Amino acid sequence: MALRHYTLDFSLSAAADSASTVSSLLSIFHEQEMTETVHDTEGHGYLATFVGKNGRLVILRVHSHGLITIDLQCYEEDNIAQLDNLLNALEKKLTALLNGHITRIKRLPALVRGAKVDRYWPTADGRLMEYDIDQVLYEEDSAYQNIKILRSQQFGNMLVLNGDVNLAESDLPYTEAIMGSGKEDYAGKEVLILGGGDGGILAEAVKQKPKMITMVEISFHGFCSAKVIDGCKTHMRKTCGNVLDNLKGECYQILVEDCVPVLKKYVQEGKTFDYIINDLTAVPISTEPEEDSTWEFLRLILDLSIKVLHPSGKYFTQGNSVNLTEALSLYEEQLGKLSCPVDFSKEVVCVPSYMELWVFYTVWKK
């Protein structure tokens, strides 16, 4: 069972008279066989609820500062035409009644709540987006996170980790940006991928015939897991091709291990990489880097990565939404505090399924 929630708002140049406004609307509700209950707002305008026999609920509020709001809730299987007629009648009556005092009328599409397939996911900066998702293809809970692969008609199959949209089949721009946007030559190079369980980076890197790619697919911080590989190799093949079918290929190996001990081992061995691609986590949105464990994890990975980066090598990573300027500035401050001095550049790319601009960083030793 799911609920549909419609909203209709009238912004006014002055406060409306509650008595005359409500009395003009009552006949519409009575025609729908809805009974009203008036609630005490302690002087803050007028508030009433109208309940119908079929489970419909309307909340009518005439606010004291020049706003009228109507919320209509009904079951998903309710008659859509009847609901439209009800909202149309209310809008027509109020438009006539408040003629000359209306500054804006806003009617939003229905918000579907409690549906089996969740279509609503937030952007990094907290804006709610509705996706055209029509099917859950895969869902598993690992020790680290909830993993979903959803089908979007527009973006293709889409990987969502703990409610965060990670990558869709449409998102080649993300993969290209985190690999240097076509400016780098991976042929014959040693490459380290941290995370990347969807296989998109690995699939694109393999095409360039590197000497060896090592992909470390799990982290103690809980952003990747072997179950991500399991889901993606079945449901994200437009992104990963066949590279996730085996943990070893002609020029790559996938290590399902904690990336921190692996990096520390490489530091001890003196092993270096021409390219390191960090796809573990975005720059945290917290502005308290000294108190946020995600920031601590990010700094640890960054510092270890720079230690195993070849002197002429490059380190690539995602940042976050271009709108999160403070968090991005804090990350850039962290780049100045590493054990080895570095320079960096950044690029802004539109990632289709994110529906927002995303920042990517390239870091290299001075």
TrEMBL record:
Protein name as it appears in the record: Spermine synthase
Q: What is its EC number?
A: 2.5.1.22
A GO MF annotation of the entry reads: spermine synthase activity
* Residue ranges of domain PABS in the record: 119-365
Pathway(s) annotated for this protein in UniProt = Amine and polyamine biosynthesis; spermine biosynthesis; spermine from spermidine: step 1/1
* Species this protein is from: Scomber scombrus (Atlantic mackerel)
Q: Which residues form the active site?
A: D279 (proton acceptor)
UniProt cross-references to Pfam families, sorted A to Z: Spermine_synt_N, Spermine_synth, SpmSyn_N
SUBUNIT field = Homodimer. Dimerization is mediated through the N-terminal domain and seems to be required for activity as deletion of the N-terminal domain causes complete loss of activity.
Q: Which InterPro entries match?
A: PABS (IPR030374), PABS_CS (IPR030373), SAM-dependent_MTases_sf (IPR029063), Spermidine_synt_N (IPR035246), Spermidine_synt_N_sf (IPR037163), Spermine_synthase_animal (IPR015576), SpmSyn_N (IPR040900)
Of which family is this protein a member?
A: Belongs to the spermidine/spermine synthase family.
Which transformation does this protein catalyse, written as a reaction? Answer: S-adenosyl 3-(methylsulfanyl)propylamine + spermidine = spermine + S-methyl-5'-thioadenosine + H(+)
Q: Which domain of life is it from?
A: Eukaryota
Q: Which SUPFAM superfamilies match?
A: S-adenosyl-L-methionine-dependent methyltransferases
List GO BP terms, alphabetically: spermine biosynthetic process
Q: Enumerate the UniProt keywords alphabetically.
A: Acetylation, Phosphoprotein, Polyamine biosynthesis, Transferase
Output the PANTHER family linked to this UniProt entry.
SPERMINE SYNTHASE
